[in-house]
Amino acid sequence: MTATTTTQPIVQAKDLSKSFGRVVGLADCSFELYPGEVLAVVGDNGAGKSTLIKCLSGALSPDSGEMYIDGEAVTFKSTNDSRAKGVETVYQTLAVAPVLDISENLYLGREIRKKGILGKVFRSLDKKKMRAEATQSLNDLGVLTVQSITQSVETLSGGQRQAVAVARAGAFGSKVVILDEPTAALGVNESARVLKLIKDLRERGMSIILISHNMPQVFDVADRIHVQRLGRRAAVVTPQSHQMNEVVAIMTGAMTVPEAEQQLTPVR
Amino acid sequence: MSSTAPTTAADEFADKASTMQKVQSSLHRYPWLSPLFVLALLLVIFGVLGLVMGVGDLENFFKPGTISLMLQQTVIVGTLAIAQTIVILTAGIDLSIGAIMVFAQMFMANLAVYTTASNVTFMAGQNPVLAVFIGLIVATLAGGLNGFLIVRFNLPPFIVTLGTLSIFTALTLILFKARTIQGKEMPDFMLLMSTKFELGPLTFTLGLIVMLLLYVLFAYILRGTAWGTHVYAVGDDPVAAELSGINVKRVLFSVYVVAGVVIGVAAWITIGRTAAASPNVAPEINLETITAVVIGGTSLFGGRGRLLGTLLGTFIIVVLDFGLSLAGLDQAYRVLAIGVLVIAAVAVDQWIRKVKA
Ligand SMILES: Nc1ncnc2c1ncn2[C@@H]1O[C@H](COP(=O)(O)OP(=O)(O)OP(=O)(O)O)[C@@H](O)[C@H]1O
Ligand SMILES: [Mg+2]
Fold it and tell me: Are B91 and B235 in contact (CB under 8 A)?
């Protein structure tokens, strides 16, 4: 057994399972994310990475297993429940509404209403405030390369859309940000910007789960690497303890790592 | 240096391309621009034909009496098209709008008027205010039934509303035995929406005012409230909306309920407009509302469009109707023109959707 530590995982899962009919997405999968770290989740296509984070964000409910946020047992019925606990997710499909503009997207599902009777009785949105704060949070993240906050998202480039999605995740006092393949569709420069964004979020004290197929990027930003294989955790290693080709070998099952050589405790 | 070279064909081409792009992105931003353009064009054409060339009776087109009549003619399609717009914005469709409207107006009239030729005589003879109110509730419940079936059983709106179209048409015949109740049989309150008043040279009806107020109200709701934003988001991409924390099923259900309320108001307006409650009123009303919405620039694929466009689309239908018949042309030409407009509108929509910054 590894030595007990005083640090509690900010997000933890025990024996999560999820099947889709006869297809197994997750099989007794364990997971720990520690405060302030970037944890990369890697694995082959269909290894269950997206399924894992969808359970953690409430988009799917697991068939069995437990989940804990800050040590407290949780069950999420919808993504709103995880958001309420400070867990924000950028999905592989981005989950933005292309016809809506940037600020509407940032505030989708948690719009701000005007003060007083206009807001309470007439349900009037405070568009001015939402636009101002949307501009502010894009600025904070250094991603304000868009022409206008009222531009519809479908007119943005892939990298700009990704930036909007990441800004949305980082904008609401969240503690944990989950990113599912944020750079998959991006060019070199745009990828670099998103990686910078991830490091910035970590600087601000957020804990980050990063799903990626891109090993150089994973080795660039990750503190620890969770290797997913066939619906369960195959190993947790670090960029220092293992080489890229070794991580790939773990992914494919060509190599196994004894628990004593894994990094199951925080490094930060 | 090439920068000082005179304009080449290629430059000109680039200019043209960017003009087209500007048109495309303007239409993208303001989808009601195309129906506005079509309406203006129609008015100009009818104006030239009538006032300059003296074709047919078109000179009467711009007389206050004709304009008043055209405006009053918009109320049934125009009001129902509000309900259709909200439904279509969610990428749905409502084929039962006309059937529910007829059912609701027959319900109202048969409550207020005692006729032996009905199967609801036991509850006839109500206070007309109560009769209208109950009719509104009935339409709301009918909309709720659509929403419930769509949301609860995950059925396509097209199929559900095709079914309820038959169901409510049948219920109208079964309960009310298809007897038309004339306006003169009804208490005055039933015909309140036909109340006329002068506004300058024009004659308005209360029904027209109510319709316009509904447009203002729903334009605000769709663009100024969170519910409106959610309607757009759900129509645009329901999966993304759900992941963003929107309760997609609740939004969809509420959309059909709200459509039901609007249909109920339209039923009352229709009694006033036609001075009767008849099972055969406006047999093509479903297609007309869809036409108004589509010509108005709202996308059948959901998430895209404005209520103002629908109002303009309604005007286009009525203006074409009056203009062509005053020009002495057969009804068939109006149907033909509407067909062309619908296809053009959908083509424009497809083009706009490809916009890039
Ligand atoms: N909604 C679903 N219905 C049916 N099967 C699903 C569904 N979602 C995932 N699966 C299946 O579950 C397994 C794990 O899928 P998951 O999307 O989690 O993989 P992944 O590791 O994210 O893969 P990728 O790298 O391709 O994104 C796959 O076999 C997949 O086909
Ligand atoms: Mg995935």
Answer: yes
Using DSSP's 3-state secondary structure scheme, residue A28 falls into strand
ipTM of the complex: 0.83
Tokens 């329901």 label which residue? B238
Q: Is A32 helix (H, G, I), strand (E, B) or coil?
A: strand
SS (H, E, C) B46-64: HHHHHHHCCCCCHHHHHCH
- Residues of A in CB contact (< 8 Å) with B are 59, 78-80, 83, 89, 91, 93-100, 104, 108-111, 113, 122-125, 127, 147, 151-152, 154-157
Q: Can you name the CATH fold of A1-86+175-268? A: Rossmann fold (3.40.50)
- In a 13 Å sphere around the CA of A182, the CA atoms on its Cβ side amount to 31
CB atoms B243 and A83 under 8 Å: no
Give burial (CB, 10 Å; 0-12/13-18/19+) of B327: middle
How is chain B split among helix, strand and coil, in percent rounded to 5?
75, 5, 20
Does residue A22 line the site of ligand 1, with CB under 6 A? Answer: no
Chain A interface includes B250 (CB < 8 A) = no
Atom of ligand 1 nearest to the CA of A213: 25
If you search the block for the tokens 């729903």, which residue do you land on?
B218
Q: Domain spans of chain B?
A: 74-283+302-307
**Cβ atoms within 10 Å of A243's Cβ, excluding its own:** 12
Q: Which residues contact A191 (CB under 8 A, 6 or more apart)?
A: A183, A214, A217
Q: Give the Cα separation of A198 and A193 in Å (integer).
A: 9
Q: Number of CB pairs < 8 Å for A and B? A: 83
**CA proximity to A262, closest of A30, A20, A21, A75:** A30
Compute CA distances A220 → A88, A124, A225, A257, B90, whole Å: 22, 45, 11, 22, 43
Name the β-bridge partners of A23.
Answer: A20
Using CA atoms, how far apart are residues B163 and B160, in angstroms rounded to an integer? 5
Please count the other Cβ atoms lying within 10 Å of the Cβ belonging to residue A110. 15
- DSSP class of residue B153? S
B84: closest CA among B326, B255, B203? Answer: B255
Q: What is the pTM of this model?
A: 0.88
**What secondary structure letter does DSSP report for B2?**
G
Report the C-alpha gap between A233 and A226 in whole angstroms: 7
Tally of CB atoms within 10 A around A245: 10
A57 → chain B, closest CA residue: B243
- The sheet carrying A11-20 orders its strands as A23-33, A11-20, A64-69, A72-74
CB contact B356 to A (< 8 Å): yes
Structural contact between residues A150 and A107, judged by C-beta atoms closer than 8 angstroms: no
Tens of each residue's pLDDT in chain B, 357 residues: 344 444 455 555 556 668 888 888 888 888 899 899 999 999 999 999 988 888 888 889 999 999 999 999 999 999 999 999 999 999 999 999 999 999 999 999 999 998 878 888 888 888 999 999 999 999 999 999 999 999 999 999 999 999 999 999 999 999 998 889 999 999 999 999 999 999 899 999 999 999 999 999 999 999 999 999 999 999 999 999 998 889 999 999 999 999 999 999 999 999 999 999 999 888 889 999 999 999 999 999 999 999 999 999 999 999 999 999 999 888 888 889 889 989 998 898 888 877 654
Positive or negative: CA dihedral A15, A20, A21, A23: negative
